[in-house]
Design goal:
single chain; alpha/beta; two-stranded antiparallel sheet; 6 strands; about 35% helix; globular
């Protein structure tokens, strides 16, 4: 990750990394370049007003199960296994439908996946981005 002149962080991109799909923290100031802003957490983030969030969607149904989220606890050592289990959860009907909504938004233009996670690079939003980048959810 590199910092730009304005201090914002830019992730390096790989051949399969769609720059139109972004992951950001809900606590960061909205930017005009965000495109569609979608919160992908199950629980509303503490201290954020709906006005400040400037969301286009809140897709609670795409979030990981409470059991998986609690098991994971954002432990970096568990991220690979969390990502694998979460991709499996994305196959259930409700989550698959919500994931399809994300795909549709991504096809229309820039999509910013928002999370309250302190480390967005190891969050469910990062797993969703990778799944969207690769065009699959299974």
């Amino acid at each position: 990750m590199t910092a730009s002149k304005d201090g914002s962080k830019n992730r390096s991109t790989s051949a399969h990394d769609d720059p139109r799909i972004r992951v950001r923290r809900i606590y960061d100031e909205p930017e005009p370049s965000d495109g569609a802003r979608v919160l992908v957490d199950r629980v509303w983030p503490r201290g954020v007003s709906k006005d400040h969030a400037r969301l286009d969607e809140w897709l609670k149904d795409v979030a990981p199960s409470n059991e998986l989220r609690q098991w994971y606890g954002h432990d970096p050592d568990k991220y690979a296994e969390f990502a694998r289990r979460y991709r499996e959860e994305l196959k259930d009907d409700t989550r698959a439908e919500a994931f399809d909504q994300l795909k549709e938004l991504a096809e229309k233009g820039t999509l910013t996946l928002l999370t309250a996670s302190k480390r967005d690079e190891i969050s469910q939003a990062a797993v969703l981005k990778k799944s969207l980048d690769s065009g699959r959810h299974g």
